[in-house]
Amino acid sequence: MRRARRINRELAEVYPYAHPELDFENPFQLVVATVLSAQTTDLRVNQTTPALFAKYPTPEDLAAADPEEVEEILRPTGFFRAKTKAVIGLSKALAEQFGGEVPGRLEDLVKLPGVGRKTAFVVLGNAFGRPGITVDTHFQRLVRRWKWTEETEPDKIEATVGGLFPKSEWTMLSHHVIFHGRRICHARKPACGACPIAPLCPAYGEGETDPEKAKKLLKYEKGGFPGQRLKPPQAYLDAGGKPAPPLGAG
Ligand code: SF4
Q1: Where are the annotated segments for Disordered (predicted)?
Q2: Which sequence spans correspond to the domains of the chain?
Q3: CA–CA distance from 99 to each of 59, 60, 92, 96, 128 (Å)?
Q4: Contacts within 8 Å (CB) and 24+ apart, 199-205
Q5: Active-site option among 23, 42, 83, 118
């Protein structure tokens, strides 16, 4: 527990501006963007949702949409037919069962079509300020590398890791870990030689240890690139982060 908390403290210093990497302005936009983020990058979702929400700003609008028109907008995110069906179905459920509002309770959220625990926690943590752990692919890989848990099922990982930290830290912990996984501790080639938490990491050496070679593996702002959001939070901009370009610009 001590080492886990120390790693989180170090990561908080490396990524003081860690944040959800999907652009959203309200809970409806966040739940739709999270559903769209399956099998694609947050960047691609962020480049696609401005057109979607400009045309369909509310669940009622999207519930009544012509699927072919939605498919056209969602095409860049991949699996666009299934995703169109999912977001229209989700919007219908919101409009019909929840008065057009995204519910703020886990038990209601997971009843929505296409919304599992992972999506529900993203929405609770980031749109409602309720603590939640997001066990995505990065989170699973990193907590195993750090030996925080031997579990392999997301629900069990969530429970074990949740037990190592106070509840109030869960949401930011998730952001720190996911930021680190995306930028430095990659699946195939972790950049160990450029990793600020290397002295605390039991998996140091699993990736490139040569500092110069490791530096070339860094992604996003640490490598001088823009982040994922077109409209990132101010703290990220203040730290020198660059907004992502709109669709078609790169
Ligand atoms: S030392 Fe390597 S394996 Fe450990 S967190 Fe850093 S990049 Fe990941």
Answers
A1: 223-250
A2: 2-16+133-238, 27-127
A3: 9, 9, 10, 6, 17
A4: 200/3, 200/6, 200/7, 200/10, 201/7, 201/145, 201/146, 202/145, 202/146, 202/147, 203/145, 203/146, 203/147
A5: 118
Does 92 qualify as catalytic in the annotation?
no
pLDDT beyond 90 at 248: no
Q: Is the pLDDT of residue 116 over 60?
A: yes
User: Is residue 250 very low, low, confident or very high in pLDDT (cuts 50, 70, 90)?
Assistant: low
Mean of pLDDT over the chain: 95
Q: How confident is the model at residue 170 (pLDDT cuts 50, 70, 90)?
A: very high
Q: pLDDT value at position 118?
A: 87
Q: Does ligand 1 lie within 6 Å of residue 177's CB atom? A: no
Q: Which CATH class is domain 27-127?
A: mainly alpha
- What is the arithmetic mean of pLDDT over 106-133? 93
Is 181 a pocket residue for ligand 1 (Cβ < 6 Å)? no
Does 118 qualify as catalytic in the annotation?
yes
Binding-site residues for [4Fe-4S] cluster, in ranges, read: 185, 192, 195, 201
Q: Give, in words, the CATH class of 2-16+133-238.
A: mainly alpha
**What percent of the chain has pLDDT above 70?**
100
